[in-house]
Specification:
It is globular, with a radius of gyration of 22 Å. Helix content is 61%, strand content 3%. It is mainly alpha-helical. Helix 2 packs across helix 3 and helix 6 crosses helix 12. It has a three-stranded antiparallel beta sheet, with no helix packed on it.
């Protein structure tokens, strides 16, 4: 097995494991929601604990909890796993690019799979809609704008509009305490508007690589901004580059790798697909350092980025688990009451 094949296999293994954990958490949440929302005659389904992993997909709540934490009010007790994953994702971005998105995020994996489906259809059908799957720089820039607008709105509300008292009131509100169930209902019982929005995202991801991740994910936008500080990055040796553009075509984020000296774009997920695709040995490599002088740079093994990503998330999980900051402090009675009063009113 060649080095590029080993790199791709490593990424596929990590993504598969992350996706399996996510699917298992979805099944657990299905059973939990059936228990929590049951309001019929008799005892109903037996008690099932709320899975903590899905709290990772409550970024706005986690961001509010982060502000609350740094304001001196302690660790969030409602969705502690969400705050744990948020801190870990930020740490990963500060050290190993936006590799949380490239290796662990199931939404990123789904977006990539849809993009590959579109690429396969293009080859077989010859781009039946006549749309370029890799738009120019101006169109790519416009596609990237919505997620930063969404992020700016979220940050403005949390950090400018909400006082510490308002923030604590939100975190302790029935809405936030049942936010994971509300998102569950958004996907399992979608409105017509939600179906249209999801349809646009799915179709856009098939037609344009990175449509959701690059265009609409505020979580990824925030992590991308943190990744500017990451010392690890892919660098291109201009003297060895043949400008074949295989690196650019392989990049799921549509970064013009063949034009960059250092791939420091906030869209870089650290997936290393560009390195695996490069036919010239040593042309693309992972290096640590910010300066352009070669003597200031240190070559790093390509596996360092995925290693830091998985190690940081694993360490955060075990630290939170053994310190009591992974599972919610809400009691089963409180959860049952909230679901009965909000979702199943008499």
């Amino acid at each position: 097995m060649t080095a590029p094949e080993r790199m791709r296999l490593l990424r596929v293994c990590i993504q598969t494991l992350a996706a399996a954990l996510f699917i298992a958490a979805l099944w657990d949440f299905y059973q939990y929601f059936n228990w929590a929302s049951y309001n019929g005659p008799g005892e109903g389904p037996p008690f099932y604990p709320r899975p903590a992993l899905l709290e990772a997909f409550l970024p706005a709540s986690a961001l509010a909890a982060a502000k609350n934490f740094f304001s001196g009010y302690g660790f969030d007790s409602v969705h502690p796993a969400g705050l744990t994953v948020f801190f870990a994702a930020v740490l990963i971005s500060l050290t190993a690019r936006k590799s949380f998105c490239g290796y662990l995020c199931p939404a990123g994996l789904l977006c990539e799979l849809l993009s590959r489906l579109g690429a396969s259809a293009d080859k077989k059908l010859g781009s039946p809609l006549g749309l370029p799957r890799r738009p120019g720089k101006l169109i790519s820039l416009l596609i990237s704008c919505p997620k930063y607008i969404l992020l700016a709105g979220i940050l403005w509300v949390i950090f400018a509009r909400l006082s510490p008292e308002d923030l604590r009131a939100f975190l302790d509100s029935p809405y936030n305490k049942t936010l994971d169930s509300r998102i569950w209902l958004f996907f399992t019982q979608p409105s017509q508007e939600a179906l249209i929005g999801l349809g646009v995202i799915f179709a856009g991801s098939i037609l344009t690589p990175g449509f959701w991740c690059r265009g609409f994910c505020p979580y990824g936008a925030l992590l991308g901004l943190f990744s500017f500080l990451s010392p690890l990055a892919v660098r291109r040796d201009k003297t060895n580059c043949t400008y074949c553009r295989r690196c650019t075509r392989a990049c799921p984020a549509r970064i013009a790798v063949h034009e960059a000296a250092r791939v420091s774009s906030p869209e870089c997920r650290g997936c290393l697909e560009c390195v695996a695709a490069c036919p010239v040995e040593g042309c693309l490599k992972v290096q640590a350092g910010y300066r352009s002088e070669k003597k200031r740079l240190r070559r790093a093994p390509v596996w360092l980025i995925p290693l830091l990503c998985v190690a940081a998330m694993g360490a955060a999980y075990f630290l939170a688990l053994y310190s009591g900051h992974w599972h919610s402090q809400m009691t089963p009675l409180e959860l049952k009451t909230l679901h009965r009063d909000i979702f199943m009113p008499n």
